[in-house]
Design brief:
This protein has helices at 2-29, 55-78, 85-104, 108-126, 133-164, 169-175, 181-198, 206-210, 216-224, 227-237, 239-242, 246-267, 273-293, 297-324, 342-356, 362-376, 380-405, 423-438, 443-450, 463-489, 501-507, 512-559, 566-586, and strands at residues 32-42, 45-53. By secondary structure, the protein is mainly α. Residues 39-89 form the NADH-Ubiquinone oxidoreductase (complex I) chain 5 N-terminal domain.
C-alpha cells in the first residue's frame, strides 16, 4: 500500500525539480508562453489551451510543488495505518494538479478550471473521513460557501468577455486602460468576491476553521500552498487592473486589515490546536490582501511564499502532536511534551517565531514590509490594525507553544505516553524549518526577479521613521511573546475569565456561525422544505404521476381490444375497413 504514496511523492518531487529548472530558465531567458491547442471554439469565442510561465507563476509553482512534496512525504508516515491510504494520495495529487493548472494558465477560463478543481478536491479531502458527520458537514460548508463566492467571479468573467471579447490575460490587461472606470471597478469587485471565498475573507470565512476536520496534511496543503492562496494570487495576477481602480484596492486592503485583527482575536482563546493555526492563516491572508490592495503586489507575493513555509511547518508539527496524543486536539490536555517530542517542539517553535515576525526569521521581513506599505500610503488606521495584529499573533503563537510543550504534563491524567514522530517524518520537515529561518534574506533577490513583471513599489519613508516602525513592530511582537510566556508559566489566566462576556464572544467566533444558522440556514431550509412538500410533491410530482396514470389507464383499456379471439379480430378488421372507407368518401 505504501508504494502508492512513494510513487505520488516521487512524481510531485519531479514537478518540483521541473519548477526549479523553469525558475532558472525564466530568470535567464524570460517568460515562456506555450499554446498547446485551440480548446474552445464556438462562434466568436476562442479559448486556447495554453500556459504561461512568468515571474509570478513560476514563484507560485516553486512554492506549491516544494510544500506539496514535503507534505506528500510526510503523509506516507502520517496516513500509513489508514484504510483509504490510496484514495488519500489520489485526492492529494489531484489537489496539487488543480493548483498548478490555476497558476500556469494563460487565460481566465483555464484559471477558473483550476479554481473549481481546487474547490472540488478540497471538498473530497476535508470530507475524507466522510463517515464522521462533522467532516461531511465541514466539506459541504466549504464547497457551498465557495460556490457562493464563485458566482461573483463568474459575473466578473462574463463582464470581461462582454467588454474585451477575450479571456486571454494579455488581451484583457491591454484593454483595461481604455475601459470605462465604473465597469472596470465592477469587474474588479466581482473578481474579488471570488477571491474572498477561496481565501476565506469575512464574511465568507467560517469554512476555514471547520476545514480542520480533514487529515492534518490536507490542512498543511490547504492553508499553506494551495487553496487559500488562490484568492491572493488572483488579485496579484490582476494587478494591472486593480492599479487603475485604487478605491477598490483600498476596500480590499481595509477588509484585509479587519480580518487580520478579527481572526487573531479568535485565536487568543481557542483551545483547539489546529483551529488556532487556522485562525493564524486567516489573519495572515488579511496581511497579504492589505499589501495587494495598496498596490504592493510583489510584497504580497513575498509574504505568500514565506508564510507557506512556516505555516505548513506548523501544521505538520501539529500532526505529530496529534499522533502522539491519540488525536487529542485540546491544548489544555497537553503540556510538557517537550521532554518526549524535542524535534517537533523545536520545529514548531521555529515556525511560531517566524509567524510572530521576529528577526531574523522569514515572517519578519515580509510582514514588516506590509506594515511599512500601509504607513507609506498614509493609511494609518490600517497600519495600526496590522500593528495590533502583530502583537496578538505573537501572543497566541506562544500561548500554543507554552500550553503544548511546556508546563504541567496534563496528558498523564489521561494515561497517554507520547513519543515523537518517525525519523523520516522529522527529516521531511527540516527543509521547511530551514526556509522558515532563511527565506526572508531572499527579499532583495525576490524583489528584483518578480518586479520584472509586477509593478515596482517604492517606500518613501525617512530612515529614522522606518527604524522606529521596525522597532515598534518588533517591540510589540516581543512583548506578545514575553506576555504569553509569563502568563502561562504561572498557569495562565484565571478560570473566572472564561465566564466573561469578551471571552465568550471570542470563543464563539463573535456568534457569526450562530447568526448564519439563525438568519440564513434556517430560513432557507424552511423555504426548501416548503418547496419540497408543497411545490415538488403536490404540484410537480402530482402532475408527473397523473400523466403516468392517464397513460397507464389508456393502455389498460386499449389492451381489452387485443383479446386474442378470432371473432374479435374480424370485428375490428371490419370496423377498420368502415373507418377507412368513410375517410375515403368524405375526404
Amino acid at each position: 500500500m505504501l508504494i502508492t504514496g512513494i510513487i505520488a511523492s516521487l512524481l510531485i518531487a519531479t514537478s518540483m525539480v521541473a519548477s526549479f529548472v523553469l525558475l532558472i530558465n525564466v530568470n535567464t531567458y524570460g517568460p515562456l508562453h506555450v499554446t498547446m491547442m485551440d480548446w474552445i471554439a464556438a462562434g466568436n469565442l476562442e479559448v486556447p489551451f495554453g500556459f504561461v510561465v512568468d515571474e509570478v507563476s513560476v514563484i507560485m509553482m516553486v512554492t506549491v510543488t516544494l510544500v506539496s512534496t514535503i507534505v506528500h512525504v510526510y503523509s506516507i508516515g502520517y496516513m500509513d495505518h489508514d484504510k483509504s491510504f490510496n484514495r488519500f494520495f489520489s485526492y492529494l495529487s489531484a489537489f496539487v494538479f488543480s493548483m498548478m493548472i490555476l497558476v500556469m494558465s494563460d487565460n481566465f477560463v483555464g484559471l477558473f478550471i483550476g479554481w473549481e478543481g481546487v474547490g472540488l478536491c478540497s471538498w473530497l479531502l476535508i470530507g475524507f473521513w466522510y463517515e464522521r458527520h462533522s467532516a461531511s458537514w465541514a466539506a459541504n460548508e466549504a464547497f457551498i460557501m465557495n460556490r457562493i463566492a464563485d458566482l461573483g467571479m463568474l459575473m466578473g468573467l462574463f463582464l470581461i468577455y462582454w467588454t474585451v471579447g477575450s479571456f486571454q490575460y494579455d488581451d484583457v490587461f491591454a484593454s483595461v486602460k481604455t475601459m470605462d472606470p465604473v465597469l472596470l471597478a465592477t469587474i474588479g469587485l466581482f473578481l474579488f468576491i471570488g477571491a474572498m471565498g477561496k481565501s476565506a475573507q469575512f464574511p465568507l470565512h467560517t469554512w476555514l476553521a471547520d476545514a480542520m476536520e480533514g487529515p492534518t496534511p490536507v490542512s498543511a496543503l490547504i492553508h499553506a500552498a494551495t487553496m487559500v492562496t488562490a484568492g491572493v494570487y488572483l488579485v496579484i495576477r490582476c494587478g494591472e487592473m486593480y492599479t487603475l481602480i485604487p478605491d477598490v484596492g483600498f476596500a480590499i486592503a481595509s477588509l484585509g486589515a479587519f480580518v487580520a485583527v478579527f481572526a487573531a482575536s479568535m485565536a487568543l482563546v481557542n483551545n483547539d490546536l489546529k483551529r488556532i493555526i487556522a485562525y493564524s492563516t486567516l489573519s495572515q491572508l488579511g496581511y497579504m490582501f492589505v499589501a495587494a490592495g495598496l498596490g504592493a503586489y510583489w510584497i504580497a507575493l513575498f509574504h505568500l511564499m514565506t508564510h507557506a513555509f512556516f505555516k505548513s511547518l506548523l501544521f505538520l508539527g501539529a500532526g505529530n502532536v496529534m499522533h502522539a496524543m491519540h488525536d487529542e486536539l485540546n491544548i489544555k490536555k497537553m503540556g510538557g511534551l517537550y521532554g518526549s517530542m524535542k524535534a517537533t517542539a523545536i520545529l514548531m517553535s521555529v515556525a511560531s517565531v517566524a509567524l510572530a515576525g521576529i528577526y531574523p526569521f522569514a515572517g519578519f521581513f515580509s510582514k514588516d514590509k506590509i506594515l511599512e506599505v500601509a504607513f507609506n500610503e498614509g493609511a494609518y488606521f490600517l497600519w495600526f490594525a496590522l500593528f495590533i495584529g502583530a502583537g496578538l499573533t505573537a501572543f497566541y503563537s506562544f500561548r500554543l507553544v507554552m500550553l503544548v510543550f511546556f508546563g504541567e504534563k496534563e496528558y498523564v491524567k489521561y494515561g497517554l505516553h507520547p513519543h515523537d514522530a518517525q525519523p523520516f517524518v522529522i527529516y521531511a520537515m527540516l527543509p521547511l524549518g530551514l526556509l522558515a529561518v532563511v527565506a526572508g534574506f531572499l527579499e532583495h533577490t525576490f524583489e528584483g526577479f518578480v518586479t520584472r513583471l509586477l509593478a515596482q513599489y517604492e517606500i518613501h519613508i525617512a530612515h529614522g521613521t522606518e527604524a522606529l516602525l521596525i522597532a515598534g513592530t518588533l517591540g510589540i511582537a516581543m512583548s506578545g511573546i514575553a506576555f504569553a510566556v509569563f502568563m502561562y508559566k504561572r498557569g495562565g489566566f484565571p478560570k473566572s475569565w472564561e465566564e466573561s462576556v469578551g471571552y465568550k464572544l471570542l470563543s464563539n467566533q463573535y456568534y457569526i456561525p450562530k447568526l448564519y444558522e439563525l438568519y440564513i440556514m434556517r430560513p432557507f431550509t424552511s423555504i426548501a422544505r416548503f418547496a419540497w412538500l408543497k411545490i415538488d410533491t403536490k404540484i410537480v410530482d402530482f402532475t408527473v404521476d397523473l400523466i403516468a396514470k392517464i397513460v397507464y389507464s389508456t393502455g389498460q383499456n386499449a389492451r381489452k381490444m387485443q383479446s386474442g379471439n378470432l371473432s374479435d379480430m374480424l370485428r375490428w378488421m371490419v370496423v377498420g375497413m368502415v373507418v377507412l372507407l368513410a375517410l375515403a368518401l368524405f375526404l
